Automatic annotation (TrEMBL):
Name used for this protein in its record: Uncharacterized protein (DUF2147 family)
Gene3D superfamilies, per database record: 2.40.128.520
Domain DUF2147, first and last residues per copy: 30-138
Keywords of the record: Signal
Secretion signal, residue range per the UniProt entry: 1-24
Annotated InterPro entries: DUF2147
Amino acid sequence: MNFSQIARPLCLTSLLLASPAAFAGPSPQGEWRVADGTATIRVHRCGAAFCGNIATTITPAGKDIHNPDPRKRNRTVLGIEVLYALRATGPNAWSGYSYNAQDGQTYTITVSLASATTLRVQGCVPGGGACGGETWTRAR
């Protein structure tokens, strides 16, 4: 058996066993400043998807008073998960859900990397409600 007969199966096996992250392109991971500058959201991997939590606020963090679950209305907004189940839908694009602590609503969203330093977030109220969007800038 020569080297190429041994090396080819080893290379193919290595490719098959490599983690999916090895093939991943750009991702939304990082810390992003929301459009009005009042908070940053830390986007991270959560299983096969991405999630995001409120990392910082420029004023003392308020309470989640608009949450539809009365048991959660006294919790601080700092650290709560506001983006979840973001899954790739194409190059530099993901879709999932966003919880907005300012109105207690959950939105379906699409997130796309407009550049290495800008993240476009667009959302709609499920069921055909109002839609809107904003651009976040990379904080870290």
